[in-house]
Specification:
alpha/beta, 8 helices, globular
Length: 270
């Protein structure tokens, strides 16, 4: 059986992390050549080493995806190595303690610059690569862009104001860009997003698990009580949907923002 992504070239931002890394592994396993754009050279190269050890072809690019010159440099290195880009997965993102309200940090005292940094990390981190690689896809006449959003983009999470606001912007951006690329350039350029629910990663562990005891925090228990499946998601479950969305099997899907959350957004609480 032919590999689903044989000879395709995929760029993944933030793939040194858990979700992006799982998507990278899935794409490489299906034959894609993979470029990892990550702000951490250690994380990016480690991910590429893992992919190469599994027989994949991978390139690590040091890249701050909130900085346009850095994005342009990473794209130049990727095209020099692989010749083209067929798939872009925008997985860079995250939150910060200083933009998350708590009894010690009320909304009134949140720092605007810290909030702007989280907006950049979760929103412009998708816009800038989409601009650079989207231009290339427009010339090619085809391509697939996948943004990793969050259920917080549709149902703002208490405390996580900047993260929720940025993910709402990602949902809107996904729909806008899908229409723009199809109408202005090619209907074979598709743009979709996944809105994961609660997946336990290093980025949110401080909110969900007590560092001292290893037990769920009060917030962690509250979340699990609102998830009908009674568990957190796994990065590989996000990757399975991502692989389908960027594949030819999803050729008629564009502008979709799909929740993958164990039923969280379907549950009314009663």
């Amino acid at each position: 059986m032919d590999l689903l992504m044989k000879d395709k070239v995929a760029v993944l931002t933030g793939a040194g992390g858990a979700i992006g890394g799982a998507i990278a592994a899935g794409l490489a396993a299906e034959g894609a050549r993979v470029a990892i754009w990550d702000i951490s050279p250690t994380a990016g190269e480690a991910r590429c080493t893992t992919l190469r050890n599994g027989g994949g072809d991978a390139l690590a690019c040091l890249c701050d995806v909130t900085d346009r010159p850095a994005v342009d440099a990473a794209l130049a290195a990727t095209v020099e190595r692989f010749g083209r880009v067929d798939i872009l997965v925008n997985a860079a993102g995250g939150s910060r303690r200083e933009t998350t309200t708590s009894p010690q940090l009320p909304f009134f005292d949140l720092d605007a610059q810290a909030m702007e940094a989280v907006m950049a990390l979760n929103y412009f981190s998708a816009v800038l690569p989409a601009q650079a690689i989207g231009r290339l896809m427009a010339k090619q006449g085809e391509g697939a862009i996948l943004n990793i959003g969050s259920i917080a983009g549709g149902q703002p999470l208490t405390r996580a104001i900047s993260y929720s606001n940025a993910k709402a912007a990602i949902a809107s951006f996904t729909q806008w860009l899908a229409v723009h690329m199809a109408q202005e350039y090619s209907p074979r350029i598709r743009v979709n997003a996944i809105a994961p629910g609660f997946v336990l990663t290093d980025q949110n562990r401080f909110l969900l698990v007590d560092e001292a005891s290893g037990e769920l925090t009060e917030r962690g228990r509250t979340i699990i009580n609102q998830v009908p499946m009674k568990r957190f998601g796994e990065p590989e479950e996000i990757a399975a949907l991502a692989l389908w969305l960027v594949s030819p099997m999803a050729s008629f899907m564009t502008g979709a923002v799909i929740p993958l959350d164990g039923g969280f957004t379907a549950f009314s609480g009663v």
